[in-house]
Automatic annotation (TrEMBL):
Keywords: DNA-binding, Transcription, Transcription regulation. The keyword Transcription regulation applies. Belongs to the LysR transcriptional regulatory family. PANTHER family: HCA OPERON TRANSCRIPTIONAL ACTIVATOR HCAR, TRANSCRIPTIONAL DUAL REGULATOR HCAR-RELATED. InterPro entries: LysR_HTH_N, LysR_subst-bd, WH-like_DNA-bd_sf, WH_DNA-bd_sf. It comes from the Bacteria. Residues 1-58 form the HTH lysR-type domain. GO terms for cellular component: protein-DNA complex. This is Transcriptional regulator, LysR family.
Length: 287
């Protein structure tokens, strides 16, 4: 079995059509068919069910496709990293992040890295917390920014920011920072919160604020986007609670009251995969 067999298999598995796969690979269709047959013979099983006009993956083929794609991604990453080392740290970091990380953490990181390594390029993808963990485990990103208390091995984390929470109200709401005492004043109001799937641990942090106030909130809507929350609040659909850092950089018809009396905090963390670690991360002080 050679590397070309894996590349050929991955292309056919994606296209599910030998002619189209052959065109993508710039080889003759009969030659591609022979290569796939050789691979199947070496494995001692069928990877495809052949029909007149198309092919389908067998159960073994579907599993093999997943693992081959992982192998090829790892290989591409290794080749990129070798070139980075040889070229004096030119290359890219693939970064996943939740919205609040873009307020300070990511711009600060990019400015710091750019000063020392101006040839490193960042590829940024906004993703929720579970999506980032899956992408790290699959080798699709190098670094994530999450609000989670725990991550599964082989992932590792570093806390960047411990943040307070802030109450979000419409601009004209009668409760102000001067007359606000505690959340009990607002127990009859509906609330708009981040989806629990966004981060279960973050959601529990927010729920503990209500527990301390002695009531369960009336949840009117939920979302995973801060700007959506602010638009709903400004339109009168309810109030919200967000990390205080999210009070920066928005110009909407809402106001914020920081819940400084509460001991509850939320942490923004960097997360990476120790088993698929881009060597650039150590150069920029991660890990």
């Amino acid at each position: 079995m050679e590397l070309r067999h894996l590349r050929y298999f991955a292309t056919v598995a994606e296209e599910l059509h030998f002619r189209k796969a052959a065109e993508r690979l710039f080889i003759a269709q009969p030659g591609l068919s022979r290569q796939i047959r050789q691979l199947e013979q070496e494995l001692g099983l069928e990877l495809f069910v052949r029909h007149n006009r198309k092919v389908e993956l067998t159960a073994a083929g579907r599993y093999f496709q997943q693992r081959v794609n992982e192998i090829l991604r790892d290989l591409e990453g290794a080749i990129t990293n070798v070139k980075l080392i040889a070229d004096g740290l030119r290359g890219e970091l693939r970064v996943g992040y939740i919205g609040s990380a873009m307020q300070r953490a990511i711009p600060d990181l990019m400015l710091s890295v750019n000063r020392d390594y101006p040839d490193i390029r960042f590829v940024l993808r906004e993703m929720d917390n579970p999506q980032q963990l899956e992408a790290l485990l699959q080798g699709e990103i190098d670094l994530g920014f999450v609000r989670m208390e725990r991550v599964p091995p082989p992932l590792a984390t570093k806390t960047l920011l411990e943040d307070t929470f802030s109450l979000v109200l419409p601009e004209q709401h009668p409760v102000t920072s001067e007359n606000f005492k505690d959340l009990k004043q607002l127990k009859e109001e509906p609330f708009i919160l981040f989806e629990p799937s966004y981060s279960e641990s973050y959601y529990q942090n927010v729920m503990r604020l209500f527990d301390a106030a002695g009531f369960s909130p009336k949840l009117s809507h939920s979302t995973v986007n801060a700007s959506s929350i602010y638009r709903l609040v400004s339109a009168g659909f309810g109030l919200s609670i967000v990390p205080t850092v999210l009070s920066e950089g928005y110009d909407m018809r809402v106001k914020f009251i920081e819940l400084t009396a509460s001991a509850e905090r939320t942490s923004l963390r960097m997360v990476w995969n120790e088993e698929r670690k881009n060597p650039l991360l150590e150069k920029i002080g991660v890990g």
